[in-house]
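Methods: example folding runs. The two proteins below were folded one after another, and each record is reproduced exactly as written to the output file, sequence line first and structure-token line second.
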Amino acid sequence: MNNKILIIGAIIITVGLLVFGRWYSTGQTQEAVSIGTQGQANVRGGTVSIENPAPDFSLQKLGGGTITLAEYRGKKPVVLDFWASWCPNCRRDMPKLSRFYEKYKDQVEVIGINLQENKRTIENYINSAGISFPVALDPSGRVSRAFGIRYTNIHVLIDKEGNIVRTIPGDIRESDIISLIQ
């Protein structure tokens, strides 16, 4: 009799924990992606489908000049690639993204945003990897924070009208680029 009560109690507790865990993780997913009052995208993971204005920015480009996100509004979609040279996933993904850029650069802009590394480190990596898309310097992390970026190898897809369409943590695929064109 006591064993039956213990087994039933264990089953009830297990089911309760499973239900709570499922409810809690669903709540976390919804909180992980939110749009602030200033149009800031807060993204901590997962592929997200949201349509809100991307925060505008103007940053120094590697090699000179500035790059401003608003320049592309109404002209072509943009892929922002938040990266660092020490990130092994970025080092694997960036050459592939550079090939996509070469193939689709007339239809989609790609902007690499480096996460607070020094200029020499960035230049060394870009030159050794043969990256062809523009790289913007975010030494203070201001733009990364505006987009809610918490880690490297995150891609933010922005449509032609300047709205955040989706974020992609991890490697980007050619189909992701094509989805912005269609």
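Second run, written to the same file directly after the first:
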Amino acid sequence: MAMRSILGPMTRTLVALCGVWVLLSCANAHADTGAPDELVRTLAAQMTQAVRTDPDLQNPGSLKISDFVQKNVVPHFDFDRITQIAMGRNWAKASPTEQKQIVLEFGKLLTRTYSNAIASLKDLDVEVKSTRVTTPNSDVVVKTQMIGRPQPVAIDYGLINSPGGWKVYDVTVEGISLVAAYRDEFNGLVSSSGVQGVIDALKKKNGS
């Protein structure tokens, strides 16, 4: 199964929408200690303002966007957990070296995805609707709504409470899970080309 199917119509929608987490992710030490819904609410307001007032963050070709994402977004994603969930049962089929390669390349792909989305977010706002607790003080889903388009878009964030604070491990847009979408694609790649097929497809997409 070709990697281009991962970036098909459904995933291109995720590219445009999931990047809204960029507006929520620049947590400081004080915010990390708070409830996840308050963290999202506060940082959404702060970072929306930052994007609206910084022309460099509105320019898709700006090098500042990449630096912004690396410094302020990447630390708030649990790429190890994201990759393990996306690989599903196939994670155990990968050697430790292959697992590290997949985490590295998948992290690159997702980071570039969020970087490409940030410039289009200056006219959007985020409303926190509710929080569903999966495991008390450990695993929650923060339900939000992105407004500023003709129709509001429901976006849910799965967060895990780690030693480094709350970290994102999944994003669900209108009921479609980013991790689940990649799991389907990775399953197909492993079936046809083995674990190395996933690594090769990710490297090709990343230009590695």
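Comment on the second run: Residues 3-206 form a domain with the Nuclear Transport Factor 2; Chain: A, fold (CATH 3.10.450.710).
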